[in-house]
Amino acid sequence: MKKNLEPEIKRELASELTVEYDISISRACNLVNIHRSYFYYVTKKDDSEVEDAIRQAAVFGDGFWKIYRILRKSGNMWNHKKVYRVYKAMHYEKRSRLKKRLPIRVKNLLATPERPNITWSMDFVSDAVECGRKFRVLNIIDDCDRLAIAQEISMSMPAKRVIKILEKVIWLNGKPKNIRCDNGPEFIAADFRNWCKANEINLLFTQPGCPTQNSYIERFNGSYRRAVLDAYIFRNLSEAREQTEIWRTYYNEQRPHESLDNMTPVEYRVNKTV
Predict the structure, then answer these.
(1) Can you spell out the DSSP letters for the chain?
(2) Based on CB atoms within 10 Å of each CB, which residue in 6, 100, 183, 238 is the most buried?
């Protein structure tokens, strides 16, 4: 069954026919089956207020009648025929599935804490072993002295695995007040957020597309990648874990850090606690 064209589309076609084939307006209107008076008709209706109200009410993708009732409750007393006419002209009757999006993140300024265990930063980096199988590395550092608290390697790292790693790290190092991370699926998972809430740990999410808001861990990731992941070919995870632990010890105890007055993270922590 063929669908009839809307009058507005027919009027556009008639206008194109008069230009393209140099025929009269009357002839063009007959060809597209509209009255000549409609061709000249100019609407005097200003529906901008109704359109704005519909856009605000339709933000969550509700159907016409829910939107109409929202408008009525808001004090807009347009009748349903007028609202539906504008609603249809805006093509809102063709409901589409809303695209998933992250909640709005508040910008958290990156400040250096005065003492350890105030804020930890964590992030993932990825690589592959010789056979091509990918693995992930969870890096966790303390923002105060850039100490590499943990580097855990696994083929899979779901939220529950991240929780177990943090429980182990907290048992060894104490609990932070804040954890700074991006919007990765492991970090925004309900299990992880509920665990942080139960343990009274504040989650500081960076805004999407703003890696500079977590620049401490981003710089650490770059140093680790250049020194380990890009420098070696690993046949298995054991080799990756071994070389990573060697580098982490070197990073914490021997490698000077410019932002720490050229001290190592361990030296800086000792001086801070003295």
Answers:
(1) -PPPPPHHHHHHHHHHHHHHS---HHHHHHHHT--HHHHH-------HHHHHHHHHHTTT---HHHHHHHHHHTT----HHHHHHHHHHTTTTS--PPPP-PPPPPP------SSTTSEEEEEEEEEE-TTS-EEEEEEEEETTT--EEEEEEES---HHHHHHHHHHHHHHH---SEEEE---HHHHSHHHHHHHHHTT-EEEEPPTT-GGGGHHHHHHHHHHIIIIITT---SSHHHHHHHHHHHHHHHHHT--BGGGTTB-HHHHHHHHH-
(2) 183
pLDDT in tens, 233-259: 999 999 999 999 999 999 998 888 888
Residue-wise burial string across 27-45, b where 16 or more C-beta atoms lie within 10 A, e elsewhere: ebbeebebeeeebeeeeee
Closest-CA residue to 158 (of 133, 127, 120, 124) = 124
The residue count for the chain: 274
Supply the pTM of this predicted model.
0.61
Boundaries of every domain in the chain: 7-89, 119-273
Are residues 192 and 162 in contact, defined by beta-carbon separation less than 8 angstroms?
yes
Which CATH class, in words, describes the domain spanning 119-273? alpha beta
Mean predicted confidence (pLDDT) in 66-71: 85
Strand 148-154 relative to strand 202-205: parallel, antiparallel, unpaired? unpaired
CB 143 within 8 A of CB 213: no
Asked if residue 134 lies in contact with residue 128, where contact means CB atoms within 8 angstroms, the answer is yes
